[in-house]
Amino acid sequence: MPTPEAGHVPGHRAASLAVVDPATGEPFDEAPDQRPDELDGVITRARRAWHGWRADPAARTTALCAAADAVEEAGDDLARLLTREQGKPLAESYAEIARTAARLRYFADLAPRTRRIDDGRPVHSVVRWRPVGPVAAIVPWNFPLQLAAAKFAPALAAGNTVVLKPSPHTPLATRLLGSVLATVLPEDVLTVVTGREPLGARLAAHQGIRHVTFTGSVPTGRAVAGSAAASLARVTLELGGNDAAVLLDDADVDRIADRLFWAAFRNCGQVCMAVKRVYVPARLHAEVVEALAQRAKTVAVGSGLDPDTRIGPVNNAPQLARVEQVTRQALAAGARAAAGGHRLDGAGYFFAPTILSDVPPDSPVVTEEQFGPVLPVLPYRNLDEAVDAANGTGFGLGGSVWGTDLDRAEAVADRLECGTAWINHHAELSLAQPFTGVKDSGVGVAGGPWGLYGNLRPFVVHRPREEEA
């Protein structure tokens, strides 16, 4: 069972936070609802632990490798708990745990490079790298463990300590992960805190935090940036996405339909870089709608603990209401549901996988991030029109182009205003690559060496050459 996080006040009966199983809509467990004033002690201890943790890179590498092993050993318990509170199919939970362990191993092997600058002056200039200090990692509910590791693995590898706050919708697997990692990491190097707001806002604004890394909505990201500005803390913000998939007129619909469907509907569509709108040449529109609708009508929807389930529930009641709202707005404006279009009867937060046709291009389901199992498919008359539409929102996280001529597809991909563009697939990331957004989709870079250096600051030493000493 998870152990209480650092910051718990002995003898104080902490308030509790009910955790709901989205497959039933009923609470099944609880987590501490920690008071914001408890953060002072947590962050003080994180800063004390930082001095020892930063001093021994070899020990950090060993500890992070041991952490990856510990995550894998606890995989069964972590996966089942993750599915209970998040809703995703158990196979996807196991994949998330595997990704968490892989990320720890990847960053354990990375180290910043010292660089000597030789510019003809009578001094040697050496650039070294130093950790920034305690890091606040604030994580959403769609990939609680994977996104947590995307933040704490590079921060720890760089020599920082981390205070990790999961969403109040999904605190349990993160608490368990913290307990697992506490068996191999020094005390207070990684601390998990759980609770409702204003806990996250207070964490982002705390004077003892030197880097705030946040994944979530654009409005909350703006608030986080404002809070961090008070202490001039560094911020990394991975915010919303409204990724467009542009099909070219030479696309092989039968060949790509399955990949395109799952690029939109994995994790019940609750993926920041999922395909959220599809632009199709008018002559292929009906064929694409039918191919996607056939899959939406036949895919197994249910509890993530059922081995036959491919799509689970929406994670929480407010998000379900949001998905229902944007779908109703589209239908009221003239859209047609080729599949789904409604909540499913019975308990839990289930929404039928939905393919929308004849959607007005200014409908919120197109212009905003729906973050659920709903996909609008829109026809276009010429390619310039499709690219303009794909670039026509405030988001710029990812995008994809689908076609047979790969050179032509890449040329179109180069025109997309986003941080990552895929060709004939979508939402696949290497641990070694940067991940970033443009426009409202984010600030800063995660992933690969860029993620490591985002948790470091340069330190320059000048010394005279021997003959000038």
UniProtKB/TrEMBL annotation:
The active site is at 238. Gene3D superfamilies: Aldehyde Dehydrogenase, Chain A, domain 1, Aldehyde Dehydrogenase, Chain A, domain 2. SUPFAM superfamilies: ALDH-like. One of its GO terms (molecular function) is oxidoreductase activity, acting on the aldehyde or oxo group of donors, NAD or NADP as acceptor. InterPro entries: Ald_DH/histidinol_DH, Ald_DH_C, Ald_DH_CS_CYS, Ald_DH_CS_GLU, Ald_DH_N, Aldehyde_DH_dom, LUC3-like. Keywords: Oxidoreductase. It comes from the Bacteria. Residues 15-452 form the Aldehyde dehydrogenase domain. Pfam families: Aldedh. Belongs to the aldehyde dehydrogenase family. PANTHER family: ALDEHYDE DEHYDROGENASE-RELATED (PTHR11699). This is Acyl-CoA reductase-like NAD-dependent aldehyde dehydrogenase. It comes from Streptomyces nymphaeiformis.
